[in-house]
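Intended use. Records like the one below are meant for learning the mapping from a protein sequence to its folded structure. Do not use them to infer anything beyond what is encoded.
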Amino acid sequence: LRRNVAPFTQNSSRFASSLSTANATASTKSQKITSEQENGHINRSTAAAFAAASLALGYAIGSNQLNSPNIDDGQKRVLPSGLPRSCCSCDDDHHAKAESSLKSLTEAQRALPAKLGKIAGPSNVIDGTSESSSNAPFLRGMRLGHGSALAIVTPTTLREAVNCLQAIVDADCVVVPQGANTGLTGGSVPRDNDRPSVVLSTRHLNTMFPIDDGKRAVCLAGAGIATLSNNLSMWGFPDRESHSVLGSIFLDPTTSAGVAFGSGGTQLRKGPAYTDRALYCRVLTNKWGENVVEIVNTLGIKGLEDEDYPMNKGNALDSLDAYASDIKQGFRRAMASSSDSEHGKSKASDAEDYKKNVCKCDDHISRFNADTKGRDCNRSEGKVLILATVHDTFPKPAQSKSFMVSFSSLELALRFRRNVCLNNSIDLPISAEYMDRDSFDVIDQAGRLMANVIKITGMTGGLLGAMWTAKTKVESLPIDGADLWVDKLMHFFNFIAPAILPSRFQKAGLEMDHHLIVTVGEYDDGTMDRFLKRMERFVEEENKKSNEEGKISVLVNECKQKSDETSLSAFRFVAAPAFRTWCVGEGVQGVSVDYALPNNGGEIPELTPSYSDKAVIPLKRMRYSHFGCNVVHEDLAYDLGVDVHEAKMSLKKSVEKLSKGRLPAEHGHGTEYSAPVDTKERWMKMDPSNVMNPGIGGLSSKKFYKD
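Structure written out for the chain above:
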C-alpha cells in the first residue's frame, strides 16, 4: 500500500463531478504517479526474522532446556496466546467432520468453489476442506478456533465481495467474514454448524484515502490500522493521527474489525473504534424465502450518496471501486469531502461523547463489547459484511510529556485517576496505563528480549511483524513441544538482555506496587499546564500526609528524553507476550481475561469459588489496564493440574456479580463468551436467517437460529 498511495489534490468538486463516469474514463483522465519501491526492505526484514528463528530451532532441538515439563496423563495444560493486547482450547475432530460434511454437499454447494473462481478469479479461491500451509492462516484462530471451510475466497474489489456473498448464500452456505484474523475469541474462523462454511477474506480490499482535507479517512474493509497511521504523513497531513496507535498494531489488524468489535486501546481522548458512516451488506430473506444481499450506504461522501445516481445510472459501490483502483495503481484523484446529508453529518468516531462519559463518576461502564448503540456495523462481530468505513483523524499534540507515576496502594492510584486524570473532559491525558507489581515482575523476568527489539525497531516496523510470524510458524511445526520452544528460549536468555527501563524507573518499580504510565499533550489550549498543576498538587498533598509517617506515597519519574518514553511504551506493550513466556519458562499454565468495570469502580475483583468450596489462588495475578476507562486485562498463572476453567469462571462471577462489570471489554464475544439478550436480539435482526458468522456470542449455529 505504501508504494501505491498517491498524493491527493484538494478539490472536492472535481471528485463529485467525476464519479458518475469513473468506471469508463478513470484511467484516461488520471495522471500516473511514480512510487518508491520498498520490496528490498521487506525482504531483508523477513529474512532476518527467519534466520533468527532458524538459530532458535537449532538450539531448541539440541537443548535439554526445551524439554516439556512432565504432565501426567489426563492433565491438560492451558497457555495464553501471548498476543499483545480468555482460556479455552478447541480440541475437535474437525477433519473427520469436514470429510463427513463433504459427502452430504448439494450440487450447488459442490459447484460453489468454481463459481467463486469465476467471480474473484481462480487464484483468489483456496480449498479449505483440509488444512495446508496455504490455508492455515485463514482456518486457525490467533488464540483459539480451528475449523475447515468449503472454500476461502479473497475478492479484490467491492463488487466481487458482494457477488461472492450472494453466491455463497444462494448455495445455502454460511459466511465467515475475516480481516487479518488477529481475533482472540474464535469468532473469525470457521466452526462446526449445519451448513458448509466459506471464509470471505477482505485482505485484498486494503485501499484507503483521505477526505475533508485529512480530517477523515476512508478505509476499505481490509485496510490495516498500522498502514493508516503511517499513511497520514505520506498523504501530507503530519499534524494528524489515526485512532489506533498501539496495541497489536504490528500485526496490522483491519480498521473494519475494530469497528466490528468496538476495539479500544490506549487512547483515552479518542474512545473505542466506532463509526456510523459505512458501506456494508446485510443478508435478508424475501417473501419467497430467498436470501437477498442488501447494500447499506451511510458513507456520507459527496458523489457517493445513493441519491447521486438517479434512474439507476451507476451506483456508489462501483464508483468507489473505480476510485480505489486508481489510488492503488498510483493515479492522482481529487480529494473527496463529506456531504451535507444526514450521513455526512453522522459520527465517524465516538470521541466527543466518550470523553464526557468517561469523566462521569457513576456506575455506568464506559465501553464493552455488548454495547448496542450505533449503526449495525458497530460491534456486529461478523453479522454484517463491512465493505468500507469512514474514520475521524485527530490533531497531534503540539508537544507531549510522559511520566511513570508509582503509588503505595491501589486506592491511592484510583484517587489519582479520579482527581487528576478524569477531572474534566477537556484536560484528559493522551493515555493512562496501569500495571501492578506482578505485571512489573513478570515483564522484567520474561519480556526483556522482545521489549529491546521494540526499542530498536519500533512497534510498526516490518521486522517485528516478521519475527512474530516466524515465532508462530515454529509453534505450529508438527513436532511435539514445538509450540513451547521459542518461549522457552526467550525465558532462558531473558537475563542476557539489558533491563527495559532506565535505572530510576526500574528502582521505582521495585519500591512500589502500583504504577501508571501517563502521557499528556498540549493542544494549544493549556491542557498540559492544567494537568501538570493538578498532578503536582496531588503528589504534594499525598506525600505530605505520608511524610508524617516517614514514607512517600507517590513517586513521579518524568521521561527526560525520547528513549525513556520508548522504554516505557515497550515495557507496557510486551505484558501479554511476557506472561506466556513466563508461564512456559516456569512450567505452569495461565489464562487471560479482559473485562470492564464501572466508572466509579476499579478495585480488584475477589476470586470467589465457582464449583468448589474454595477459590484457587493463582501463582501470579497480573493486572494491567486502560486506567481511564477501567478496561482491565488480567493474566493469571496456575500450577499444573489446576482446573483453569473453574478459575476463570470464578473471576467472571466476581466481575459480573460483585463488581458489576462486563465481559468481554474489547476482544469480542466470538465463541468464548455468551452475549446478553439485547445484543443477541440485535444480531438476529441484522441477520435473520443466520448465514453470517453463525454461532457467535452463544447464538445457535443453525439456520434461522433453531435449537
